[in-house]
Structures are given as structure tokens and as C-alpha cells.
Amino acid sequence: MRQQLVLFFIMLSVSFFGNFVSAQEPNDSEGEVRYISDDLFTFLHAGPGRNYRILGSVVAGSRVIMLQQDRDNGFIEIIDDKQRTGWVDAEFINKTPSVREQIPSLQQNLQDANAALKQQRTENDLLNQQIADLQSQNTTLARKLTEIESQNEQMSIELADQDQTAQIEWFTRGGIVAVISLILGIVITYLPKKRRRNDNWM
Fold first, then answer.
1. Strand (E) or helix (H) holding 2
2. Helices (H) and strands (E) in the chain, counts
3. Of 1, 76, 193, 197, which sees the most CB atoms within 10 A?
């Protein structure tokens, strides 16, 4: 019985101690996510060599002023962006601007390009709208032209019918006049002639 009680207290103690330890350890949910900076740097020395005292560090890509060069030791004396004077390894010095220095210019160029692209897109949209309007006007004019051609054809047919009707009327009137003239000629021919009086006395 005692062994069981001792075993029970031991298990209870282990369980309590394990919970206490786990409660003291931090976990991912207790803080905000951050990232380690990946900026590179080179040491700034008090003299032309790695044995001289380190004055600080210069971040990679910083703009510096070169004062002189120690070709024997391969070091260059500079003034950094914090106005500190010191020596750095010559292999870390370049004549061309670093990417860090070019980023503002590249960003400005990108903004200008995006602005030009946006302007070009606006102009293209305007031209597309004008083209759509012209196409709509062209369609409307083509439809009106078709209607006018149809009306013109209809008027031509009506005019031809009127001409034919007029010709028929003229022929009819001419025929009637001819018939009447013929009848009058026949009637006049058969009318009795007046005898002339003989006024001569015998």
C-alpha cells in the first residue's frame, strides 16, 4: 500500500513539474513575426590593415569619399556616410554606384514608366472609344445609305410606271383624236353639198 502511494505521489509530482516547465517556455504565438536583417558590412579600421583598431562598420552599398590608397596593404582611406575617417579593405570599394544607391533612381524610373504606361493606356482607351463611335456612325450611315438606295430604287420604279402611264395616256389621247378626226372626215365627206344657184338669165 505504501509503495502504491509513493508511486502515485511521484507520478503526480512529475506531471506537475512537467506542466510548470512547459508553462515557462515561450511559444510562437506570444510575439510578432520579424526577420533578421541581411545587410552586409565591412569593418572600418584606424589604419591600413586588419591589425589596426576597429572604429566601426560601414554598411554595404554606402556612398563614401576616398582619400588615399595603400597599395602595399590593399587598404583605402575613406570618409563614410557618418563622416568618420578610417581604412577599409580595397576589395570592397567600387567605382560604380551600388544597387543601394541606384534603387531610388530605379524606383523613380519605374514610377515614370508606370505613369507613362497609364497615360498611354488612357490614350488607347480614348482612341478605342473614338474608333467605336466612328464604327457606330459608319454603321448608321451605311444603314441610311441602304435606305436611301432602296427609296431611290422605289422612286425609279414609280417614275418608270408614271412614264409608262403617261405614254399610254398620250397614245390613248392620240388614238381618240385620230378616231374622232377619222369620223369627222367621213361625216364631212357624206354631207350633202349645196347646189350653186344659177343667176345667169337666158
1. helix 2-24
2. 2, 5
3. 76
